[in-house]
UniProtKB/TrEMBL annotation:
Source species of the chain: Calycomorphotria hydatis
Taxonomic superkingdom: Bacteria
Keywords associated with the record: Signal
Signal peptide region: 1-22
This protein's name: Carboxypeptidase regulatory-like domain-containing protein
Lineage, uppermost ranks: Bacteria, Pseudomonadati, Planctomycetota, Planctomycetia, Planctomycetales
Amino acid sequence: MSLSRPSILCVCVSLCSLLAVGCWGGDTPELGDAYGVVTLDGEPVIDAKITFMPVDAGRASSARTDESGEYRMIYSLREYGARVGNHRVHISTAKTDELGKMVGETIPVFYRDGPGVPEVTVEGGWNEFNFELTTDH
């Protein structure tokens, strides 16, 4: 059985359309650009992972702090920002060692799993969220 040239063209166009929808399709929620600085006792927190977890269902955004403690949230490979709405903010410096154990956490438990876990409200446009953490908690 052989396919005619128009049939092959039709199949190719259909496959390309499906791939485009799969890779770029879907509705992106309203995002706000979120950025800021994380400090611990006044010093920049370097290479911390920041995660904005929506209080309602939805995809989280994440970022890593640079050598100045600065971060900018990333929603997806192609988009900066975080969903508009309320978020719980998780900040951690822990890494996994060669044995799979978490090591190197410098963020106090108060801010990671206690009453000090930050919450923010992301709005459309630019949102600056600075987290000034202290070890006396």
